[in-house]
Design a protein that fits this description.
By secondary structure, this protein is α+β, with helices and mostly antiparallel strands. The chain is built from ten helices and nine strands.
Protein backbone atom coordinates (compact mmCIF):
# COMPACT_ATOMS: atom_id res chain seq x y z
CA UNK A 1 0.00 0.00 0.00
CA UNK A 2 1.42 3.35 -1.08
CA UNK A 3 0.64 6.62 0.74
CA UNK A 4 1.69 9.98 -0.75
CA UNK A 5 1.26 13.39 0.89
CA UNK A 6 1.95 16.92 -0.34
CA UNK A 7 2.48 20.02 1.81
CA UNK A 8 3.52 23.63 1.32
CA UNK A 9 7.17 24.00 2.27
CA UNK A 10 6.44 26.95 4.55
CA UNK A 11 3.97 24.85 6.57
CA UNK A 12 6.54 22.09 7.05
CA UNK A 13 9.26 24.59 8.00
CA UNK A 14 7.07 25.83 10.85
CA UNK A 15 6.82 22.32 12.32
CA UNK A 16 10.12 20.65 11.44
CA UNK A 17 13.22 22.78 12.23
CA UNK A 18 15.38 23.21 9.12
CA UNK A 19 17.52 26.25 9.93
CA UNK A 20 20.27 24.34 11.73
CA UNK A 21 22.77 27.24 11.77
CA UNK A 22 20.09 29.75 12.95
CA UNK A 23 20.91 32.34 10.30
CA UNK A 24 17.20 32.93 9.50
CA UNK A 25 17.62 31.33 6.07
CA UNK A 26 17.16 27.71 5.00
CA UNK A 27 19.80 26.63 2.52
CA UNK A 28 19.54 23.80 0.01
CA UNK A 29 21.85 21.70 2.16
CA UNK A 30 19.67 22.28 5.24
CA UNK A 31 16.54 21.28 3.33
CA UNK A 32 18.16 18.07 2.19
CA UNK A 33 19.33 17.32 5.71
CA UNK A 34 15.80 17.85 7.03
CA UNK A 35 14.26 15.08 4.88
CA UNK A 36 14.54 12.29 7.50
CA UNK A 37 13.02 14.55 10.16
CA UNK A 38 10.11 15.43 7.85
CA UNK A 39 9.41 11.78 7.12
CA UNK A 40 9.62 10.91 10.82
CA UNK A 41 7.27 13.76 11.77
CA UNK A 42 4.62 12.72 9.25
CA UNK A 43 4.85 9.01 10.09
CA UNK A 44 3.84 9.89 13.66
CA UNK A 45 1.09 12.28 12.57
CA UNK A 46 -0.55 10.06 9.95
CA UNK A 47 -2.38 7.17 11.61
CA UNK A 48 -3.21 4.20 9.39
CA UNK A 49 -5.50 1.36 10.52
CA UNK A 50 -6.01 -1.64 8.23
CA UNK A 51 -8.76 -4.12 9.07
CA UNK A 52 -8.70 -3.16 12.74
CA UNK A 53 -4.92 -3.09 13.23
CA UNK A 54 -2.71 0.01 13.45
CA UNK A 55 0.09 -0.02 10.88
CA UNK A 56 3.45 1.68 10.54
CA UNK A 57 5.44 2.27 7.33
CA UNK A 58 7.45 -0.71 6.14
CA UNK A 59 10.40 1.52 5.23
CA UNK A 60 11.57 5.06 5.95
CA UNK A 61 9.58 7.67 4.09
CA UNK A 62 10.83 9.23 0.87
CA UNK A 63 10.83 13.06 0.78
CA UNK A 64 11.21 15.26 -2.33
CA UNK A 65 10.77 18.95 -3.11
CA UNK A 66 9.42 20.54 -6.28
CA UNK A 67 9.89 23.88 -8.01
CA UNK A 68 6.58 25.18 -6.60
CA UNK A 69 7.84 25.07 -2.99
CA UNK A 70 5.92 21.91 -2.14
CA UNK A 71 7.11 18.94 -0.10
CA UNK A 72 6.14 15.43 -1.25
CA UNK A 73 6.33 12.54 1.23
CA UNK A 74 5.84 8.89 0.30
CA UNK A 75 5.36 5.85 2.57
CA UNK A 76 4.91 2.17 1.79
CA UNK A 77 2.88 -0.16 4.01
CA UNK A 78 3.01 -3.94 3.79
CA UNK A 79 -0.62 -4.51 4.77
CA UNK A 80 -3.32 -4.28 2.09
CA UNK A 81 -6.85 -3.51 3.37
CA UNK A 82 -9.53 -6.10 2.66
CA UNK A 83 -12.48 -4.82 4.65
CA UNK A 84 -11.87 -1.44 6.27
CA UNK A 85 -9.30 1.33 5.94
CA UNK A 86 -9.07 4.16 8.47
CA UNK A 87 -6.71 7.10 8.11
CA UNK A 88 -6.46 10.01 10.53
CA UNK A 89 -4.46 13.12 9.64
CA UNK A 90 -3.65 14.37 13.13
CA UNK A 91 -1.09 16.80 11.66
CA UNK A 92 -3.95 19.09 10.66
CA UNK A 93 -4.22 20.30 14.25
CA UNK A 94 -0.66 21.64 13.98
CA UNK A 95 -1.09 23.41 10.64
CA UNK A 96 -2.59 26.92 10.24
CA UNK A 97 -6.32 27.32 10.80
CA UNK A 98 -8.22 26.78 7.57
CA UNK A 99 -5.67 24.35 6.11
CA UNK A 100 -7.19 21.73 3.80
CA UNK A 101 -5.76 18.36 2.76
CA UNK A 102 -7.01 16.67 -0.39
CA UNK A 103 -7.16 12.87 -0.13
CA UNK A 104 -7.47 10.39 -2.97
CA UNK A 105 -7.59 6.60 -2.55
CA UNK A 106 -7.09 4.27 -5.51
CA UNK A 107 -7.36 0.51 -5.84
CA UNK A 108 -4.77 -1.80 -7.37
CA UNK A 109 -6.12 -1.06 -10.86
CA UNK A 110 -5.60 2.67 -10.45
CA UNK A 111 -9.33 3.41 -10.15
CA UNK A 112 -10.29 6.04 -7.60
CA UNK A 113 -12.63 4.76 -4.88
CA UNK A 114 -12.62 7.84 -2.66
CA UNK A 115 -11.85 11.55 -2.84
CA UNK A 116 -12.21 13.74 0.24
CA UNK A 117 -11.05 17.08 1.63
CA UNK A 118 -9.88 16.91 5.23
CA UNK A 119 -9.98 19.77 7.74
CA UNK A 120 -8.91 20.23 11.33
CA UNK A 121 -12.46 19.46 12.47
CA UNK A 122 -12.83 16.49 10.11
CA UNK A 123 -9.49 14.70 9.86
CA UNK A 124 -10.64 11.08 9.52
CA UNK A 125 -11.02 9.01 6.34
CA UNK A 126 -13.11 5.84 6.57
CA UNK A 127 -13.34 3.48 3.61
CA UNK A 128 -15.35 0.29 3.81
CA UNK A 129 -14.01 -1.69 0.88
CA UNK A 130 -17.06 -3.91 0.52
CA UNK A 131 -19.06 -0.76 -0.21
CA UNK A 132 -16.42 0.99 -2.28
CA UNK A 133 -17.28 -0.65 -5.60
CA UNK A 134 -20.48 1.22 -6.30
CA UNK A 135 -19.43 2.02 -9.85
CA UNK A 136 -20.88 5.13 -11.41
CA UNK A 137 -23.06 6.01 -8.41
CA UNK A 138 -20.08 5.91 -6.03
CA UNK A 139 -17.94 8.02 -8.36
CA UNK A 140 -20.76 10.54 -8.87
CA UNK A 141 -21.23 10.83 -5.11
CA UNK A 142 -17.49 11.36 -4.67
CA UNK A 143 -17.42 14.09 -7.29
CA UNK A 144 -20.39 15.83 -5.68
CA UNK A 145 -18.74 15.74 -2.25
CA UNK A 146 -15.44 17.08 -3.63
CA UNK A 147 -17.23 19.85 -5.53
CA UNK A 148 -19.01 20.92 -2.36
CA UNK A 149 -15.76 20.91 -0.41
CA UNK A 150 -13.96 23.08 -2.96
CA UNK A 151 -16.95 25.41 -3.31
CA UNK A 152 -16.92 26.03 0.45
CA UNK A 153 -13.14 26.41 0.35
CA UNK A 154 -13.51 29.14 -2.31
CA UNK A 155 -16.04 31.03 -0.18
CA UNK A 156 -13.82 30.79 2.90
CA UNK A 157 -10.77 31.90 0.96
CA UNK A 158 -12.34 35.12 -0.35
CA UNK A 159 -14.19 35.95 2.88
CA UNK A 160 -10.99 35.55 4.92
CA UNK A 161 -8.77 36.95 2.17
CA UNK A 162 -8.65 40.42 3.59
CA UNK A 163 -6.07 41.68 1.11
CA UNK A 164 -8.26 40.69 -1.86
CA UNK A 165 -11.34 42.22 -0.25
CA UNK A 166 -9.53 45.44 0.61
CA UNK A 167 -8.28 45.74 -2.98
CA UNK A 168 -11.82 45.29 -4.28
CA UNK A 169 -13.22 47.77 -1.75
CA UNK A 170 -10.66 50.39 -2.78
CA UNK A 171 -11.73 49.96 -6.41
CA UNK A 172 -15.45 50.11 -5.66
CA UNK A 173 -15.16 53.09 -3.29
CA UNK A 174 -15.19 55.50 -6.25
CA UNK A 175 -18.36 54.09 -7.82
CA UNK A 176 -21.74 55.80 -7.58
CA UNK A 177 -23.95 53.25 -9.29
CA UNK A 178 -24.59 49.68 -10.32
CA UNK A 179 -23.04 49.55 -13.81
CA UNK A 180 -19.61 50.98 -12.95
CA UNK A 181 -19.41 48.58 -10.01
CA UNK A 182 -20.50 45.65 -12.18
CA UNK A 183 -17.79 46.42 -14.74
CA UNK A 184 -15.10 46.51 -12.05
CA UNK A 185 -16.28 43.25 -10.46
CA UNK A 186 -16.48 41.59 -13.88
CA UNK A 187 -12.97 42.72 -14.83
CA UNK A 188 -11.61 41.41 -11.53
CA UNK A 189 -13.45 38.10 -11.96
CA UNK A 190 -12.23 37.51 -15.52
CA UNK A 191 -8.64 38.36 -14.63
CA UNK A 192 -8.21 36.26 -11.50
CA UNK A 193 -10.15 33.38 -13.07
CA UNK A 194 -7.66 33.29 -15.96
CA UNK A 195 -4.52 33.19 -13.85
CA UNK A 196 -6.11 30.92 -11.24
CA UNK A 197 -6.75 28.37 -13.99
CA UNK A 198 -3.31 28.80 -15.57
CA UNK A 199 -1.55 28.44 -12.23
CA UNK A 200 -3.66 25.48 -11.08
CA UNK A 201 -3.00 23.70 -14.38
CA UNK A 202 0.71 24.31 -13.89
CA UNK A 203 1.09 26.30 -17.12
CA UNK A 204 2.20 29.53 -15.43
CA UNK A 205 3.86 29.85 -12.05
CA UNK A 206 5.01 32.78 -9.96
CA UNK A 207 6.69 32.46 -6.54
CA UNK A 208 4.70 33.50 -3.48
CA UNK A 209 7.62 35.74 -2.51
CA UNK A 210 6.70 37.91 -5.52
CA UNK A 211 2.91 37.47 -5.61
CA UNK A 212 2.13 38.34 -1.99
CA UNK A 213 4.08 41.65 -1.87
CA UNK A 214 2.72 42.59 -5.30
CA UNK A 215 -0.84 42.07 -4.09
CA UNK A 216 -0.13 44.46 -1.21
CA UNK A 217 1.36 46.92 -3.70
CA UNK A 218 -1.84 46.86 -5.80
CA UNK A 219 -3.81 47.88 -2.72
CA UNK A 220 -1.48 50.80 -2.04
CA UNK A 221 -1.57 51.94 -5.68
CA UNK A 222 -5.36 52.00 -5.89
CA UNK A 223 -5.65 53.77 -2.52
CA UNK A 224 -3.15 56.45 -3.58
CA UNK A 225 -4.99 56.94 -6.86
CA UNK A 226 -8.20 57.46 -4.89
CA UNK A 227 -6.48 60.12 -2.79
CA UNK A 228 -5.08 61.94 -5.82
CA UNK A 229 -7.91 61.63 -8.35
CA UNK A 230 -10.90 61.15 -6.08
CA UNK A 231 -14.00 59.67 -7.63
CA UNK A 232 -12.86 60.84 -11.07
CA UNK A 233 -10.44 57.92 -11.38
CA UNK A 234 -11.01 56.66 -14.92
CA UNK A 235 -9.73 53.56 -16.64
CA UNK A 236 -10.48 51.43 -13.61
CA UNK A 237 -11.58 48.44 -15.67
CA UNK A 238 -8.21 47.87 -17.33
CA UNK A 239 -6.41 48.61 -14.08
CA UNK A 240 -8.62 46.11 -12.29
CA UNK A 241 -8.03 43.48 -14.96
CA UNK A 242 -4.26 43.93 -14.88
CA UNK A 243 -3.97 43.78 -11.11
CA UNK A 244 -6.58 41.02 -10.95
CA UNK A 245 -4.21 38.77 -12.90
CA UNK A 246 -1.77 38.91 -9.98
CA UNK A 247 -4.53 38.29 -7.44
CA UNK A 248 -5.38 35.11 -9.35
CA UNK A 249 -1.96 33.71 -8.48
CA UNK A 250 -2.75 34.49 -4.86
CA UNK A 251 -5.98 32.46 -5.08
CA UNK A 252 -4.04 29.63 -6.74
CA UNK A 253 -1.80 29.38 -3.68
CA UNK A 254 -4.70 27.83 -1.76
CA UNK A 255 -4.86 24.99 -4.31
CA UNK A 256 -1.16 24.54 -5.05
CA UNK A 257 -0.29 22.32 -2.10
CA UNK A 258 -3.43 20.17 -2.48
CA UNK A 259 -2.28 18.55 -5.73
CA UNK A 260 -5.83 18.53 -7.11
CA UNK A 261 -4.59 17.46 -10.54
CA UNK A 262 -4.13 13.97 -9.13
CA UNK A 263 -7.83 13.54 -8.44
CA UNK A 264 -9.92 11.09 -10.46
CA UNK A 265 -12.32 13.94 -11.26
CA UNK A 266 -9.40 15.79 -12.79
CA UNK A 267 -8.49 19.37 -12.10
CA UNK A 268 -11.40 21.10 -13.86
CA UNK A 269 -14.18 20.13 -11.45
CA UNK A 270 -12.40 21.22 -8.23
CA UNK A 271 -11.07 24.32 -10.00
CA UNK A 272 -14.54 25.30 -11.22
CA UNK A 273 -16.10 24.67 -7.82
CA UNK A 274 -13.36 26.66 -6.05
CA UNK A 275 -13.73 29.60 -8.45
CA UNK A 276 -17.53 29.57 -8.11
CA UNK A 277 -17.06 29.70 -4.35
CA UNK A 278 -14.79 32.73 -4.72
CA UNK A 279 -17.33 34.48 -6.94
CA UNK A 280 -20.21 33.67 -4.59
CA UNK A 281 -18.33 35.08 -1.62
CA UNK A 282 -17.24 38.12 -3.62
CA UNK A 283 -20.78 38.90 -4.79
CA UNK A 284 -22.14 38.45 -1.26
CA UNK A 285 -19.59 40.90 0.17
CA UNK A 286 -20.21 43.41 -2.66
CA UNK A 287 -23.97 43.19 -2.11
CA UNK A 288 -23.46 44.27 1.50
CA UNK A 289 -20.79 46.93 0.95
CA UNK A 290 -21.95 48.68 -2.22
CA UNK A 291 -25.30 50.03 -0.90
CA UNK A 292 -23.43 51.58 2.04
CA UNK A 293 -20.85 53.16 -0.30
CA UNK A 294 -23.52 54.62 -2.57
CA UNK A 295 -25.54 55.90 0.40
CA UNK A 296 -22.50 57.72 1.81
CA UNK A 297 -21.68 59.15 -1.61
CA UNK A 298 -25.20 60.56 -1.72
CA UNK A 299 -24.59 62.83 1.26
CA UNK A 300 -23.43 66.30 0.13
CA UNK A 301 -20.16 67.42 1.68
CA UNK A 302 -19.42 63.97 3.08
CA UNK A 303 -18.61 62.01 -0.05
CA UNK A 304 -15.09 63.36 -0.54
CA UNK A 305 -14.21 63.01 3.15
CA UNK A 306 -15.45 59.42 3.14
CA UNK A 307 -13.41 58.50 0.07
CA UNK A 308 -10.20 60.15 1.23
CA UNK A 309 -10.51 58.86 4.79
CA UNK A 310 -11.11 55.26 3.70
CA UNK A 311 -8.37 55.45 1.06
CA UNK A 312 -5.84 56.75 3.56
CA UNK A 313 -6.60 53.87 5.93
CA UNK A 314 -6.41 51.36 3.06
CA UNK A 315 -3.07 52.82 1.99
CA UNK A 316 -1.67 52.39 5.51
CA UNK A 317 -2.86 48.79 5.79
CA UNK A 318 -1.56 47.94 2.33
CA UNK A 319 1.81 49.51 3.14
CA UNK A 320 2.04 47.50 6.35
CA UNK A 321 1.30 44.26 4.47
CA UNK A 322 3.89 45.14 1.83
CA UNK A 323 6.57 45.72 4.48
CA UNK A 324 5.54 42.60 6.39
CA UNK A 325 5.89 40.51 3.23
CA UNK A 326 9.22 41.94 2.18
CA UNK A 327 11.26 43.50 4.99
CA UNK A 328 9.94 41.94 8.19
Amino acid sequence: MLVQATFALQDVEALVPMDSDLDAEVSEVERESAKPAIADWLSKQLLINVDGQNRVPATAGSVTYDERNNVHVEFRYEAVPRRLLLMQATFLSSLPEGHRQFVKIQDANGDTVLEQVLTRASDLVRLELAASHGGHERKLSSWQEVSGDFFRLGIEHIVTGYDHLLFLFALLAVTHGFWPALKIITAFTLAHSCTLALAALGWVSLPASFVEPFIAATIVYVAVENLIRGDRAGGRYWLTFGFGLIHGFGFAGALGEMDISSGDSGILLPLLAFNLGIETGQIAVAAIVLPMIWRLHGKPGFSEKFLKGCSAMICLVGSYWFLARTVF
